[in-house]
Design goal:
single chain, about 450 residues, alpha/beta, Rossmann fold, about 15% strand, binds NADPH dihydro-nicotinamide-adenine-dinucleotide phosphate
């Protein structure tokens, strides 16, 4: 596999200092080995080099004025990675850790995820190193407006359609949409997704990533003669994805005993009271520590990077916070504690060594690209509703989401079996997505 080795070497040299991007690219390319072996013509058309190079990477200054009259400067990004199968589509992340490497890894993964949904959307991602924590509403609004003052010239409902991600929820999408509308003097609802229901949002979008994760998990367990009902579950994070994964898991009869935020985790042996979490996180925008003050018997463990949660005994682990939150040591702890299945709600939460450990030790792994695709799939359904100027009911959207997730699982399962890697859904997801994108790229010529 000289060609693959050569591409990996060149990638390392070219993207030096971008560890997250290299990690994501390495994971995909190495699982594609059997496909590349079958297609020697890929080398001539430099397909792997092209698929790992963003079509466009935009970086820009975002200046804004804080409540004390002090001017602040942040860096904004939009990475338009691959538009072969549709307009670029992917969220915006506002978090101090945001840099070019993280933006590129997220955009690269997004291309594959979007292909798996079966919907016509290409891959992109964006964001800023702006930290929304502790900012007033007015500061958030001024930042979003300044961010959009540049972003608007790069997006459009047929060009590139951003949505939310870490630090970007309905409030931020509202401010971003308002500024876009003002600049453009046009009501182009499909330019952003994750909008409020009053102005073009879709029912069930808020719930979609978390619910979708559990639909995928249900299918994966079913294929392995098991169910969610009666299982003990731990979920890292307590944001959008974590909260709705918890809700659906509970509806399916699971007992969720732990959740976390970036300061620590809570353990509630009686099962998490989700209404308390929602009040703290969605209404008060507070810290998860509060849960232990309000619920008798719950224990809080302070911890810098959410890792304490992986010490808790469970059958299923759902990392729903951020990238690389499960390393080899955590994977071993999870296995020792009896975890049988891991579902990635966050993007790339499991590092390469931990993935290998899970696969070698028979722990079922639902990879992010497939398992958390429900969010972007429902965003695409929001775009469809905007185009039709019509809204589906919650039940209609949820049913479509369930169907999409079941189809994604079936596609991953089929591709893994086809290449002799049964139960390796990581490889299955990469191969199924690559098949679609590569065919579209080849059909469109060298561009
Ligand atoms: P939110 O901002 O709503 O929540 C993020 C949660 O993760 C919070 O509890 C946050 O804690 C915690 N967290 C974030 N960064 C870190 C960190 N560096 N270390 C420890 N904890 C951290 O984001 P989402 O729920 O939307 O996103 C979570 C993950 O899911 C991300 O990887 C995102 O890319 C992915 N995803 C999201 C989709 C969506 O539709 N929202 C779709 C597909 C994937 P704190 O509040 O303390 O920062």
């Amino acid at each position: 596999m000289e060609y693959l080795q050569d591409v990996l070497e060149k990638l390392k040299t070219k993207n030096n200092g971008e560890p997250e991007f290299l990690q994501a690219a390495y994971e995909v390319l190495t699982t594609l080995k059997p496909v590349i072996e079958k297609h020697p013509e890929f080398k001539q058309s430099a397909l792997l080099e092209r698929i790992t190079e963003p079509e466009r990477l935009i970086s820009f200054r975002v200046s804004w004025i804080d409540d004390n009259g002090q001017v602040q400067v942040n860096r904004g990004y939009r990475v338009q990675f691959n538009g072969a199968i549709g307009p670029y589509k992917g969220g915006l992340r506002f978090h101090p850790s945001v840099n070019q490497s993280i933006m590129k890894f997220l955009a690269f993964e997004q291309c594959f995820k979007n292909a798996l949904t079966g919907l016509p959307i290409g891959g992109g991602k964006g964001g800023s190193d702006f930290d929304p924590k502790g900012k007033s509403d007015n500061e958030i609004m001024r930042f979003c407006q300044s961010f959009m003052n540049e972003l608007y010239r790069h997006i459009g409902q047929d060009v590139d359609v951003p949505a939310g991600d870490i630090g970007v929820g309905a409030r931020e999408i509202g401010y971003l949409f308002g500024q876009y509308r003002k600049i453009r003097n046009a009501y182009e609802a499909g330019v952003l997704t994750g909008k409020g229901l009053e102005y073009g949002g879709s029912l069930a979008r808020k719930e979609a990533t978390g619910y979708g994760l559990i639909y995928f998990m249900r299918e994966m367990l079913k294929a392995n003669a098991d169910t969610i009902n009666g299982k003990t579950v731990i979920i890292s994070g307590s944001g959008n994805v974590a909260i709705y994964a918890c809700e659906k898991a509970q509806q399916y009869g699971a007992k969720v005993v732990a959740m976390s935020d970036s300061n620590g985790s809570i353990y509630d042996p009686e099962g998490i009271k989700l209404d308390v979490i929602k009040q703290i996180k969605e209404v008060e925008r507070g810290r998860i520590k509060e849960y232990a003050n309000r619920v008798k018997g719950a224990v809080y463990t302070e911890d810098k990077d959410t890792r304490s949660i992986w010490n808790i005994k469970a059958d299923i682990a759902l990392p729903c916070a951020t990238q690389n939150e499960i390393n080899l040591e955590d994977a071993k702890k999870l296995a020792a504690n009896g975890v049988k299945a891991v579902g990635e709600g966050a993007n790339m939460p499991t590092d390469l060594e931990a993935i290998e450990y899970f696969l070698k030790n028979g722990i079922l792994l639902a990879p992010a690209k497939a398992a958390n695709a429900g969010g972007v799939a429902t965003s695409a359904l929001e775009m469809s509703q905007n185009s039709m100027r019509y809204s589906w009911t919650f039940e209609e959207v949820d049913k479509k989401l369930d169907n999409i997730m079941s189809n994604i699982f079936a596609a991953c399962d089929k591709a893994a079996k086809e290449y002799g890697m049964e139960k390796n859904y990581v490889a299955g997801a990469n191969i199924a997505a690559f098949d679609k994108i590569s065919k579209a790229m080849i059909a469109q010529g060298i561009i």
